């Protein structure tokens, strides 16, 4: 029987909530380096690859052997910039959430398999472990409506508060590894596509802004899906 919320992702131009956690709820990010490495993989996979420029640098006699080696690795590396778009994300110690738009059939599946394999190899090498890192295959839910789409970004960005102890200020959302800073203008990242969400909100009226939307409480029940238990 297929796993609950598993999906073949055959639908083009559609949005999906993608998530997974560590096997036995173990941490998949133990320190800042782990978060940084995972984010660097996202950047490499989701930033457009300028093959022409890389080829020109490779052919340039002035390019050193070390630089050529890096260029060759960049040319061989998988790239998904034209297959999927990352709309929102949040990384927590033992799990992660993505909101992805699939531009090409099977784009999400290829991206997630490549990302999981690469990060698992890094993690196992660093912590001298063997075996799987994640609890089964990643889960995916098709986003059916604009309302669900908007509230899903809110749910993802509020994850640090949902799982944290009571009383933490909303400012904590800006300090955790997530796309929330891109949504409130604190950071610009070319491979995060908040522009697909922000037109639904006001730039001039604070009460109708995205930041105000995220600050509202007791709204997560409006996401019409069942997710796995993500206890920290």
Describe the structure.
It is a single chain. Helices cover 36% and strands 12% of the residues. It has 232 residues and is of the alpha+beta class. The chain has a single domain (14-222), classed as Alpha-Beta Plaits. A 4-stranded antiparallel β-sheet has the order 2-3-1-4. A hairpin with a 2-residue loop joins strand 2 and strand 3 (95-102).
List the helices and strands and how they pair.
Layout (H helix, E strand, L loop, with lengths): L13 E8 L10 H15 L4 H9 L5 H12 L7 E9 L2 E8 L4 H20 L12 E4 L3 H12 L1 H5 L16 H4 L26 H6 L17
Antiparallel strand pairs: 1-3, 1-4, 2-3
Helix pairs in contact: 1-4, 2-3
Tags for this model:
single chain, 232 residues, alpha+beta, Alpha-Beta Plaits, four-stranded antiparallel sheet, 12% strand
**How far is it from the N-terminal to the C-terminal residue, by CA?**
28 Å
What is the class in the CATH system?
Alpha Beta
Strand content: 5-15%
The coarse silhouette is: globular
> What fold name goes in the CATH topology slot?
Alpha-Beta Plaits
Count, helices: 8
Q: CATH H level: which superfamily? A: Transposase IS200-like
Count of distinct strands:
4
